[in-house]
Amino acid sequence: xxxxxxxxxxxxxxxxxxxxxxxxxxxxxxxxxxxxxxxxxxxxxxxxxxxxxxxxxxxxxxxxxxxxxxxxxxxxxxxxxxxxxxxxxxxxxxxxxxxxxxxxxxxxxxxxxxxxxxxxxxxxxxxxxxxxxxxxxxxxxxxxxxxxxxxxxxxxxxxxxxxxxxxxxxxxxxxxxxxxxxxxxxxxxxxxxxxxxxxxxxxxxxxxxxxxxxxxxxxxxxxxxxxxxxxxxx
Length: 234
Description:
By secondary structure, the protein is of the alpha/beta class. The chain has helices spanning about 35-45, 65-70, 85-95, 115-125, 150, 155-160, 165-170, 195-210, 220-225, 225-230, and strands spanning about 10-15, 30, 35, 50-60, 75-80, 100-105, 130-135, 140-145, 175-180.
């Protein structure tokens, strides 16, 4: 872990852990020819606003496995609290000073750099505290003004697990969002990798098309019919 006192504009923080409750080791699963975590690192590095990318995992004793996946000179590796993910992000904000933190969870293998860039630009242009694509799209991440982590030193139980819970539910925080049909994509039905059914769906998506092999695949997302794919290969 490398500590720096030089504040940058924006860092992307990839949130992942080895011991997922419902699907352990999912970061090592493959989508096309890359592990999920390797793909997520590539997505983050592809964002044009990112001054630094940090992979932040928990201190559960298996961190060496996570580090083996993200062993890239362009990625910083950070170990924080396993049970209090909010504190993990707070510690990242102290070790890597920045104006904005962009949170991306490693369950979301179809996150689009284009969407991250768009929501980041919107937050920055409006000097907002927090931004996302409704209804909290798995094809995007969340942009957070880093100073919020200093303001909220007593997070709720929900925030300790979901990080931004308190931000989203505080009307005093300046929030901006993009709609659930942004750029012709159905963000209300965005995919994630959370359990075995999600894994089966991911492999069906992979087997029906090569369109999603590319990191930037917004045009393919516009045509993605999850119901049709599920029924076609049932």
